[in-house]
Every structure is written in C-alpha cells, then in structure tokens.
Amino acid sequence: MSRCSICGNDYAASFEVTTAEGQRFTFDSLECAAQQLAPVCGHCGCRILGHGIEGASARYCCAHCAREGGEVEAVDNTSGS
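The structure assignment produced for this chain is given below.
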C-alpha cells in the first residue's frame, strides 16, 4: 500500500503519476490527482479538467472566463452541424 500525496490515505489501490518534468506523485483517487496536477482557471479559479483555453498569460476553463480575463477573441470549441 502507498500513501496518497494529497490526503495521506494509505490505500491498496493507489496509483503513481510521473509528470513530464520527472516529478512523481502517489494518489488514492482521481480527485486527489486533479487537486495536485490540474491547472487552475485564471479567472474563476476552478480546476481545469478538460482542454480549457490557453490565453497569452493564463489558462482558462472556458471562453467566458478567457474573455473576462482579457482574451477578447476567445471562443469555446463547438461542433457545428
């Protein structure tokens, strides 16, 4: 069993993640992994679990937040029919 890097839970089904930079973390859930690894929206502060939108100086969870953050051309990716 391994101890979670976030909550400290000692869990038999924990898993390890190694980042591109070589950092290694152990987690007991995706929730804890997201807390450690997911970027934070530059406007509303929520964790970005999808693609999000990259602005000139920040990442955003959606086009609305990107526009609020000064990215006036930001649009959400949508599939048109």
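Interim note for the steering committee: The longest strand covers residues 15-18. The chain has two helices and six strands.
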